[in-house]
Amino acid sequence: MSLVTATIKRDLVIAARNPGEWLNPLMFFLMVLALFPLAVDPDPKFLSKIAAGVVWVAALLATLLSLDALFKADVEDGTLEQWLASGESLFAMALGKVFVHWCISGLPLTLVAPLLALMMNLPDEAYSALFFSLLLGTPILSLLGAVGAALTAGVRSGGLLLSLVILPLYIPILIFGASAVYHAGIEMEYVGQLGFLASFLCLSMTLAPFAVAGALKLNLSR
Amino acid sequence: MSLVTATIKRDLVIAARNPGEWLNPLMFFLMVLALFPLAVDPDPKFLSKIAAGVVWVAALLATLLSLDALFKADVEDGTLEQWLASGESLFAMALGKVFVHWCISGLPLTLVAPLLALMMNLPDEAYSALFFSLLLGTPILSLLGAVGAALTAGVRSGGLLLSLVILPLYIPILIFGASAVYHAGIEMEYVGQLGFLASFLCLSMTLAPFAVAGALKLNLSR
Amino acid sequence: MPLSRPIDQLNRFTAHCDLSAHQVSCERDDRILFENLDLSINKGDLIQLVGPNGAGKTTLLRLLAGLNQDFDGEVRWHGKNIQQCFQDYARQRLYIGHLSAIKKVLTPLENLRWFVSSWPQVKEDDLWQALEEVTLAGYEDVPCQQLSAGQQRRVALARLLITPTPLWILDEPFTALDKAGVAWLEGHLARHVSAGGTVLITSHHALSEIPGLRQIELGVQK
Amino acid sequence: MPLSRPIDQLNRFTAHCDLSAHQVSCERDDRILFENLDLSINKGDLIQLVGPNGAGKTTLLRLLAGLNQDFDGEVRWHGKNIQQCFQDYARQRLYIGHLSAIKKVLTPLENLRWFVSSWPQVKEDDLWQALEEVTLAGYEDVPCQQLSAGQQRRVALARLLITPTPLWILDEPFTALDKAGVAWLEGHLARHVSAGGTVLITSHHALSEIPGLRQIELGVQK
Amino acid sequence: MWEALKRLYHRMGSPKWFYEISAKWLPWFVVPTVGFLLVGTIWGLAFTPADYQQGNSFRIIYIHVPAALLAQSAYAMMAIAGAVFLIWRMKMAAWVAASIAPIGASFCFLALITGAIWGKPTWGTWWVWDARLTSMLLLLFLYFGVMALQKAMDSEESAAKAGAILSLVGLVNIPIIKYSVEWWNTLHQPATLKFTEESTMAMEMLIPLLIMIAGFYLLFAVLVFMRTRNQVLWHERKKNWVKQYMQSRADK
Amino acid sequence: MFLDSYLFFDSFADFLAMGKHGFYVWLCYGITALVILANVVAPIRQRKKLIDQQTRLQRREKKNAS
Ligand code: HEM
Ligand SMILES: Nc1ncnc2c1ncn2[C@@H]1O[C@H](COP(=O)(O)OP(=O)(O)OP(=O)(O)O)[C@@H](O)[C@H]1O
Ligand SMILES: Nc1ncnc2c1ncn2[C@@H]1O[C@H](COP(=O)(O)OP(=O)(O)OP(=O)(O)O)[C@@H](O)[C@H]1O
Ligand SMILES: [Mg+2]
Ligand SMILES: [Mg+2]
User: Three-state DSSP class for D49?
Assistant: First the structure.
């Protein structure tokens, strides 16, 4: 077993021992969704109109929050140092970490979103669009987020800094994701949006791990 | 100089050395505001309707995120242990910490919110309501948040757990705060909502520090 | 480390030490660490807890310092249960554990200033002298994150020179100190004891012969 | 700690050590830590870096391990710059720093399993034996957060029994170990050296006489 | 030719050379900067006729457009300097990148604030979620992210590398962000609010605009020079040439 | 002056008023002036501070050496 697969396995075991790691993003997602009707307007027609956007915003914020811990623990307890010392490919490591992160944040979120969209009175036609846009979009969120997390891993009060660094990069995904769902809701074509998400996913899958690896190396010279 | 004032001073110095501590919540606030038009609908009339709610939700989330670091650093580097060992009043310490937190998160947020509300096309009549509701509301957010932060201080991946613990407590403040602003916008009375916020502030100022002190003591028996 | 001046502040404390443990028992995870321990610690004692790793030295120390209430039996200060006279007890003993309570962004001087804020009689000048004595002269204005492991420990130990408490409770104080530092600390402990103070430490380090030295062995039964 | 079985794995490594530093200089914050250092480390060497706190021992160690590139000069492994043959070098040396890379929620066994994942020849049985040898038998299934400081260090040191690398680079490995542990580790280092391995450590601890022991003093000029 | 370029590159990598040559160049930049800005401002404010639709408020264009153009190209320059630093480890490039960040951010801020002020008389509102405004706002966020990251890092080396990585990731994303925001905007907002078309701009309005654009770019160069010179002094403070330089200033 | 004929405004008051848009135009130009000024002053002050600090340091070092 190589160090990469061992790390993936280890991180999944840790997540299994700390159910909070994957339950908390879900709960946060749920709560942000619940805030809107309370703060703005609980009228079902109104909600149905904003559902697509709000679900996507909530998913984005939930992912953002779970990112903070992605590398921080590894930096603090010396795991990352051992990674760097081991001489194995940081690219593979980055991809592995992102994969685990997606498994415990993006994936559960994607699976649960259709249920929660019920609360927001999402039009019936939009459910499949919601599911597929999240399925394609959340890995991008994890990939881009990992870049920010790696950059801010060694930094005090990194959580907010991370949001600052990452949010502008998330905008295109938000726009296309939300618009796919919205268009599905008014029975319009949404293949284009999904296509954009898919190609962006490919792009970020090839480029983001490089940036992550470079950023992690910053911890070398501490 | 007592340990409480020394701590307040020290924390303010630290915040001054790390401008991120108070700038980042502001930036996050701004960004969350920007997400909504992008994800939902940029139509000014529509925005003007949801402005009150969205500004309050964004303020709430920004405060929430800045809470994570409130006690965590103190627990990890042993400062809290020294506090407990010193035998000084934990109530005073809790109030002091909350005060500093409000100074570097709630206060700047309150001051900047009217400017940002411009971008959400908030009705002209609602500005003073926005300001005063935030002025009364953000200290409550800090106080209640400190309870959650103290409870989750010793916990791994506490950030999200904190949100879970705290969000339900934030709901009433959100409802009254947002409704004050919304009512001001449609030229209705909003003194009642502000009155609620004021009395809730008094209540939480007397009770929350006890809860914080109790929660911090949990860290004793580690 | 040269001792450049008479340690006048050692004689500042007026109270003397009278700490006793009565039938103290403690178990963790079904393993009994110690059982029905009786202990009496008085003026002029220098007590070293020894024992293999995991014997329960840290646990006993924290319990005697009043930082851990998860045990059976009683710890008394001048005949009273320490939890009943905690404020009084806290002002007469100094606890330095594994965590140093040092803020990394602050300078050694600023850190010390916080530590002594409960003792108004301590002068600014004393702080400078204390730093000089632990050979940190010249580092007064360097943020602590730029100090080496041993230098950071010295900042924490500088408190032994300025806080006028008779009882010192130290957990592994020799960690990370170089030879000169160890010699200095041993000398300093001896001086404190001979001036009527009391010291309670854990250390795997073999202390040189100091009058009054008593060893308590834990965890031999294992 | 009884040595219950012959350490056959020590002879598993085939490569031998040939590490050299050429004109290495390093400065931090305007202070020169060392200048134009030449060093040659070969098979059978046991090198102890000594020097006062802040002399630059850790810095030199990390630099020789290839974990710090912020210096002038060159470090070579078998005549090649270590950055050019990093993968090769990394597989032949073991670095254990201040941070232990131990995940607190995992058990000692799980932690070890991760550490050795790069060496497929290591058997599960070896892990159990290694834990037994560091007297952690019976703790295999206890989460590491419940272990004492010294026990956690033993988990990290158990790697010395299983990873078949000729060169060991250890930063303060004696920290937190009890007397028996120190004696065991000294013996183990001696055995490694006599079996043709190489050890490079920093320690303030006075090592007993071991054949091949060489001390390098840093930071005397200060 | 190639050799000459290579020599120039190596010299640019030398902080001392840069410090000395920039001292000679600075006046040659400052004078035209002041000239262009003065002429452009006076011309734009007092001599061009008012726009037949927007009246005199259109005079804001002489700040707004140059600032907006500059803010965008400054980001690209910062990212490219970052890349040069990452690839060739040229420290000068890192210092230039660090100097550009606050300047670019302040021009971005200028574009936004003048746009907002201009919006009030023309559109009756300070802010609308128009494509260009929104992507400008996101650009400002990108700048802030880079600056905050650089500030948060303890070591200068890490700060430079982190800033470079982030600005490169941002550079890849800028076209994507712009494209998505424009696509989103055409979706939601039919063209009710539109900037005046550039092609229809009269010559007498265009010339001062071009002068102002030139002035802003020159100003940018001057500011980058000044900041980079400080960076050089700071980072090279232990080198002999800086010590001697300080000494000679102290003796004077 | 010959430029007078090219001037758009008839009087200085007109110029200030900018046909009801004076507030917006002058606000823009004012803010711009401030931002540019701040951008110019900041590096100058930084440079001064840096040089002061370094020369003081060097003087101290020299004193220590001798
Ligand atoms: C906060 C508000 C605004 C922002 C952030 C903003 C942003 C921009 C940007 C980024 C450009 C450069 C476009 C390019 O690269 O080609 C630009 C150009 C321009 N803006 Fe604005 N703008 C704002 C408000 C306004 C308003 C209210 C007007 C006038 C009614 C206006 C008129 C123009 C004109 C005439 C141009 C140049 C024409 C062109 O390049 O197509 N802007 N603006
Ligand atoms: N948080 C905890 N939960 C459960 N058990 C714990 C916890 N902390 C410590 N223990 C157990 O208590 C025992 C004593 O730990 P303690 O830290 O007091 O040992 P120690 O004598 O200080 O050892 P060392 O010499 O390694 O510092 C250990 O065996 C450990 O397993
Ligand atoms: N991150 C850093 N930034 C700046 N200076 C640093 C940094 N880390 C260490 N230093 C400086 O480098 C010097 C050497 O530190 P190092 O940790 O190598 O010392 P050491 O010899 O290991 O000391 P110790 O015995 O206390 O462990 C110290 O004086 C410290 O001030
Ligand atoms: Mg212990
Ligand atoms: Mg060290």
Answer: strand
Cβ contact, residue pair B167, A35, below 8 Å: yes
Give the global pTM.
0.84
> DSSP H helical segments within chain B, as ranges?
3-17, 20-39, 44-67, 69-77, 79-86, 90-101, 107-119, 127-151, 158-185, 191-217
User: Which of A10, A91, A216 should we substitute to test contact with D (largest number of D Cβ atoms within 10 Å)?
Assistant: A10
- What are the chain A neighbours of D97 within 8 Å (beta carbons)? 78, 81
D61 domain residue, yes or no: no
pLDDT at C6 over 50: no
Question: For residues B34 and B51, what is the distance between their CA atoms, to the nearest angstrom?
Answer: 11
Q: pLDDT tens digits for E192-202?
A: 455 555 556 67
Token pair 């501070």: residue: F49
Residue C188 counted as domain residue: yes
Query: To the nearest whole angstrom, how far is the Cα of E36 from the nearest Cα of chain F?
Result: 14
The count of domains in chain B is 1
C134 in a structural domain: yes
Tell me the residue range of the domain where B93 lies.
3-221
Which is it for strands D46-50 and C31-42: parallel, antiparallel or unpaired? Answer: unpaired
Say what the pLDDT of residue E43 is.
86
Q: How many residues does chain E have?
A: 252
Domain assignment of residue D99, given as a range: 5-14+42-52+86-217
C79, part of any domain = no
Nearest to D53 among C98, C177, C206 (CB): C177
Mutate to test the pocket of ligand 1, among E195, E205, E217 (most ligand atoms within 8 A of CB): E195
The count of domains in chain D is 1
Q: Does D143 touch chain C (CB under 8 A)?
A: no
Mean pLDDT (chain B, rounded): 87
Q: Which bound ligand lies closest to the C-alpha atom of B118? A: 1
The CATH number for C180's domain is: 3.40.50.300
User: Nearest 5 degrees, angle CA A125-CA A128-CA A131?
Assistant: 135
How far apart are alpha carbons C167 and D78 in whole angstroms? 56
Distance from the E131 Cα atom to the nearest Cα atom in chain F, whole angstroms: 22
Q: Does F15 touch chain E (CB under 8 A)?
A: yes
Helix (H) or strand (E) holding C21: strand C18-28
- Kind of pairing between the strands at D167-171 and D72-77: unpaired
Cα within 13 Å of Cα(C109), Cβ side = 13
Taking CA atoms, D138 is separated from B157, D132, D133, D183, in Å, by 29, 8, 12, 22
Residues of chain B numbered 150-169 and touching chain E (CB < 8 Å): none
Question: Count of H helices and E strands in chain D?
Answer: 6, 9
Tell me, yes or no, if E126 comes closer than 8 A to chain A by beta carbon. Answer: no
% of chain A exceeding 70 in pLDDT: 96
State the DSSP code for B153. T
Residue B156 burial class via C-beta count within 10 angstroms: exposed 0-12, middle 13-18, buried 19 and up: middle
Give yes or no for C177 touching D (CB within 8 A).
yes
pLDDT tens digits for D47-93? Answer: 999 988 888 899 999 999 999 888 889 999 998 999 899 988 998 99
| Exposure on the CB side of residue B34, measured as CA atoms within 13 A | 26
- In chain E, residues with a C-beta closer than 8 Å to the C-beta of F8 are 46-50
Q: Which domains does chain E have, with CATH numbers?
A: 31-251 (1.20.120)
Cβ B106 vs Cβ B139: under 8 Å: yes
Residue B2 has pLDDT above 70, yes or no: yes
C103 vs B14: CB contact, 8 Å cut-off? Answer: yes
Nearest chain E residue to F26 by CA distance is: E60
- DSSP label at residue A44: H
Return the ligand 1 atom nearest residue E116 CA.
Answer: 1
Interatomic CA distance for residues F8 and C64, integer angstroms: 87
Ligand with the closest atom to the CA of D54: 3
Question: DSSP code of C140?
Answer: T
